[in-house]
């Protein structure tokens, strides 16, 4: 059952998912949230700076494979790091074999993963929770900054490629995955699992939002994605554990720095008002 033929199909699906998730998280039409986002970019230099920083790290990740080829690492740590796990993913695939389950996992992995990230930014902007906006930007930056060195110097192959007993079920719904998607996700960029770290990061931050239904969805999204990385035959258990640890650290730092950035923004907004009052007081 083919769901995706190329990256355009994934892009359209992601755009639709973002609109639905924004409506679900805010109860408002997506265009209103989009307008709030545009106004924030125009009105706040700090907001714009954080957003540009996230775009920059995403661009770095896009070209990570080129950097990897330039460095030309010849060793492979798959066996040394996670070969001890065997082929337990194959047992999971055989036990729960279902075309519908493969499709669901693929949609979460390919579409809802990034859609939830984009929608989170829109939702926190719309409800004016700047602490969470700053926190999510910082957490995304840390996830990528800390993961890229591992991808460059700790090459670990995906489970299906390392063990022939494990099937790459993604090809059932996205037959041209290797031709179209592989340039965004290296075959040996396995440890840690960024799908795990980022989805858990979004869930942990959603728990601080006070939006109950968004928190529930974010955790469902994270749980399904963690299951999907195993069921589709991509990751090892070790990758997931490292991803959860990366998420916990990134969220901790993100919330601390997010609170600091919010307090600075508030203090800077108050100072001019005080300055304007001083002449009238002195007179």
TrEMBL record:
Q: Keywords on this record? A: Membrane, Transmembrane, Transmembrane helix
What this protein is called in its record is Phosphatase PAP2 family protein
Q: Is Signal set as a keyword in this record?
A: no
Q: Could you tell me which residue ranges the Inositolphosphotransferase Aur1/Ipt1 domain spans?
A: 87-252
Q: Which domain of life is it from?
A: Bacteria
Q: Does the keyword Transmembrane helix apply?
A: yes
Gene3D superfamilies cross-referenced by the UniProt entry: Phosphatidic acid phosphatase type 2/haloperoxidase (1.20.144.10)
Which residue ranges does UniProt annotate as crossing the membrane? Answer: 6-26, 47-63, 100-125, 132-154, 214-234, 240-259
Entry's InterPro entries? Aur1/Ipt1 (IPR026841), PAP2/HPO_sf (IPR036938)
């Amino acid at each position: 059952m083919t769901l995706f033929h190329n990256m355009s199909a994934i892009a359209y699906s992601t755009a639709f998912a973002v609109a639905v998730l924004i409506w679900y998280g805010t109860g408002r039409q997506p265009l209103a949230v989009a307008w709030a986002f545009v106004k924030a970019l125009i009105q706040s230099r700090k907001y714009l700076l954080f957003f540009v920083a996230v775009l920059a790290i995403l661009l770095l990740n896009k070209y990570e494979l080129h950097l990897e080829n330039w460095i030309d690492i010849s060793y492979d740590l798959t066996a040394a790091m996670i070969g001890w796990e065997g082929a337990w993913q194959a047992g999971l695939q055989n036990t729960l074999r279902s075309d519908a389950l493969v499709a669901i996992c693929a949609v979460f992995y390919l579409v809802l993963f990034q859609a939830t990230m984009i929608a989170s930014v829109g939702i926190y902007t719309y409800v004016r929770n700047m602490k969470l906006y700053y926190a999510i930007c910082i957490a995304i930056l840390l996830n990528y900054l800390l993961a890229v060195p591992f991808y460059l110097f700790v090459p670990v192959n995906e489970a299906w490629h390392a063990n022939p007993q494990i099937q790459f079920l993604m090809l059932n719904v996205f037959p041209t995955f290797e031709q179209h998607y592989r340039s965004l996700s290296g075959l040996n960029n396995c440890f840690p699992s960024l799908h795990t770290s980022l989805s858990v990061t979004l869930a942990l931050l959603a728990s601080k939002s006070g939006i109950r239904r968004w928190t529930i969805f974010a955790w469902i999204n994270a749980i399904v994605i963690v299951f999907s990385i195993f069921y589709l035959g991509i990751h090892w258990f070790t990758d997931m554990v490292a991803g959860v640890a990366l998420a916990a650290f990134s969220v901790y730092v993100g919330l601390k720095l997010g609170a600091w950035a919010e307090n600075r923004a508030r203090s800077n907004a108050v100072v001019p008002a005080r300055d304007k009052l001083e002449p009238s007081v002195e007179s």
